[in-house]
Task: inverse folding
């Protein structure tokens, strides 16, 4: 059965997705964390629908971007295959899991905070000088690559992000890929993990929002416009800082919602069982 939403909520979320897709694509990002932030701010969706929408939009953006990077020759199979091989089944398992709200909401809050920090660091990092000598990327040892793939794939399925926000800084910081190879490997990683994670979400819950086609259309329109504008015509660092602020606001809301969820649960657990009876019957306190 399809989940329904008010028309005002659908319109506002579709507009937010269009705007976020435009901004993210203009600075070279797919935008999964932004879509999660928009859903956290605009709606009260259950986590299976949040994950389904974010993963579906990832797939739409990932297909286009992966085709472009592979056509340009930036994709590197040797860097991708051990991480991707371990990540894809774990993304499916992560998509199957439905975490308690008290766990899922702060987890998404942490992911959004992490994504915001990465955007700020990227904005504050000076552009690389083409005159500097380039170092050759070193492939990670196979056991480490497989372990990283398992962890990142599980996080991708659990959070609905596709895992790109975790893999991209890992490849760069560890020296396993340069910028172009990182972008190409990451977008293919996001695409395949999103397909696997979405399969797990659908298998676990058949409820998908009826408005999903509108969100897909909004993401495609925004992504097309943003990629056409490019970072040269828009102040990319300013956009990254603006997106970071949006992510931090959404993260704060997720933490607050988690706190509000925990209070009723604690009160319910305190009043769940009546005090034992002092008189006869099954509730009588037995002498020691």
Result:
């Amino acid at each position: 059965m399809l989940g329904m939403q008010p028309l005002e909520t659908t319109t506002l979320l579709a507009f937010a997705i269009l705007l976020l897709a435009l901004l993210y694509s203009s600075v070279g990002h797919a935008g999964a964390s932004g879509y999660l932030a928009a859903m956290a701010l605009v709606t009260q969706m259950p986590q299976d629908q949040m994950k389904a929408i974010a993963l579906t939009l990832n797939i739409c953006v990932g297909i286009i971007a992966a085709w472009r990077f592979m056509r340009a020759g930036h994709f590197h199979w040797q860097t991708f295959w051990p991480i991707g091989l371990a990540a894809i089944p774990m993304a499916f398992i992560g998509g199957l899991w439905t975490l308690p709200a008290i766990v899922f909401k702060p987890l998404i809050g942490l992911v959004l905070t992490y994504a915001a920090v990465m955007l700020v660091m990227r904005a504050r990092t000076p552009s690389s000088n083409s005159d500097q000598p380039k170092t050759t990327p070193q492939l990670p040892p196979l056991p480490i690559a497989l372990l990283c793939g398992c962890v990142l794939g599980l996080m991708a399925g659990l959070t609905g992000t596709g895992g790109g926000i975790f893999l991209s800084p890992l490849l760069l910081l560890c020296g396993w890929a340069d910028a172009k190879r990182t972008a190409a490997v990451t977008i293919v990683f996001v695409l395949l993990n999103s397909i696997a994670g979405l399969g797990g979400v659908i298998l676990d819950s058949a409820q998908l929002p009826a408005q999903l086609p509108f969100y897909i259309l909004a993401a495609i329109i925004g992504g097309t416009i943003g990629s056409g504008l490019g970072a040269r015509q828009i102040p990319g660092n300013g956009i990254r800082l603006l997106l970071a602020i949006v992510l931090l606001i959404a993260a704060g809301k997720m933490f607050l919602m988690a706190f509000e969820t925990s209070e009723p649960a604690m009160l319910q657990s305190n009043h769940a069982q009546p005090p034992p009876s002092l008189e006869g019957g099954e509730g009588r306190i037995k002498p020691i």
Observations:
- The chain has one domain: 8-124+138-263.
